[in-house]
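Thread: "does anyone have the structure for this chain?"

Original post by V.I.:
We have the sequence but no experimental structure in hand. Need at least a predicted one for the grant figures.
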Amino acid sequence: MSSSALTPILEHLRAEPSRTWSIIVTLYGDAVVPRGGTLWLGTLLKIFEAMGIGGNVVRTAMSRLASDGLLERSRVGRNAYYRLADRGRATFLEAAARIYALHAPSWDGAFDILVSSGVERAPVVGGHAILAPGVLIGLRTPFTRLEGTIQLRATAETEDARRLARQVWPTERLGRSYRRFVDAFEPLRAALANGADLPDLQALVARLLLVHEYRRLVLRDPALPDVLLPDDWPGRAACALCADAYPRLLPPSERWLDVHAVNERGPLPPPDPSLFRRFR
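Reply from O.Q.:
Generated one for you, tokens below.
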């Protein structure tokens, strides 16, 4: 069962333009930060070996992340230990509020409109979309204040707002990505729901790839409220899949970390209790 459940996930990983450095950030944010934040390189190499990703690729990615200021490295003897730098931790924590959320935001019946000369080339800025050169539209999230900008509020009837949302946000393309995600991870979810057990390391791999692939979609998602989305919006199914699978993967994956994962002081400390409230 274990290999058959993981096969579509690993095939999905190979088919999508996922990058090793990005999976490393997911690993730290999802599994290492809740347990103190530091991990021995040797532990990390074991995890990525189980994904079929070689050590040289991982070391290159770690060096890039350290050079970019996302990771910090320390040494004890010949062993290297890495932790998220302040910049990397802030990046993941900001994203976590959306990754592990179960509920879409509400809508107050109005859009934010920003008129500026500085946004002509950006197709989407912080979840906002371009209506015309120099004119952005968004919901709730404050705009970054730019010199010479004007911010307005515009109300709309629900049906008019739904039509506008379909026109200015890439929901059709994103919906296709959500469907591919569900297709890849549904065999795993179904197997877990039917009581099948994954070996601990495979459970950790499945958990990390589940969060990583979902994270990639969520951070491209403008987080429109339910009322503005199609009735069959596949993002809902993707979220429900994560909410079902993630808690089932936590015990065996944390068990593997208990036994095998170390930092410069020895075994990792127990996880923060907030870990078990994700997708709740």
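V.I.: this helps a lot. The first helix runs from residue 2 to 15.
O.Q.: and The beta strands are 38-40, 71-76, 79-84, 110-115, 124-125, 128-132, 135-138, 150-155, 262-263, 266-267.
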